[in-house]
Amino acid sequence: MNKIIILTDSSSNLNSSDRESFGVEEIIPMHYFLDGVMHDADGDWKEISYKDYYDAMRNGARAKSAQVNAAQYKEAFVKYLDKGYDVLSISCTSALSSSVKESFTARDELQPKYPDQKIRCIDSACCNYALALLIKDAAKLRDEGKDIDEIVEFIESVKLNYNEIGTVEKLTYLRAAGRVSASAAFFGGLFAVKPIIIYDTVGHNIAVAKVKGRRKSFEEIGDMVKKYADVTEHKTIYIAHADAIEDAEEVAEIIQSKYEEKLQIVFGVVEPVVGSSVGPGTLILGFYASKDMRVSR
Length: 297
Description:
Strand content: 15-25%
Helix content: 25-40%
């Protein structure tokens, strides 16, 4: 049985120091444009600091994103195929990005050239820390000696359990990204309405609640985490913030107050590609959830 390497894209929100603990050999960058200038996205914020990025958005800079292309996947796959590895690529949900389809293109081109190795590409139906947690559990199975197809079977059977709850500070960025209508953004801003967003059964973002006021949105998130998070084996909850650490800490306190046992709550920053659509002030919580949290669109 060949050794397995695991690759993902930068929407997983992992930085370079996370790679070893999450069991990822390579993080392939998506791209973002800030006022028309393209940058590679990464969790380390090597090209632009997250403070500068989100401040630029607050000051009116336009941010857009671009997917991983087939050439990037091909280059990464070949690097490891040439060393005799099987390749497991786990990408951002196809509902939000075409990157995973580009991985399929690279796979289909390369597989005939490497008949003794396996290339498997997975649509995770999520991104950000939900994707990172899925990868971490896949890497655990690899390290226990499971073969690549056993890992794929596991991922496909449980991937809907990895979910997120998010809320935004302003709807204008979702409007610019085409995620909400102009009228919804206008009236939502006018009445301080905050959507509570999760993934549906195919990986789309969907608002499952709309509450009035920022503080109320934090309370709603806390209630939903308590209702849906499975903390029996997966005790870590990840909170990614878009330059809003104080708000992230407040949400963490609300969540912890609902549990007698001590949870592990880890903070990170929303990486720039997802950040381009949701804007500064956004909070995104990733955790292992009960499957019935996902709803049909």
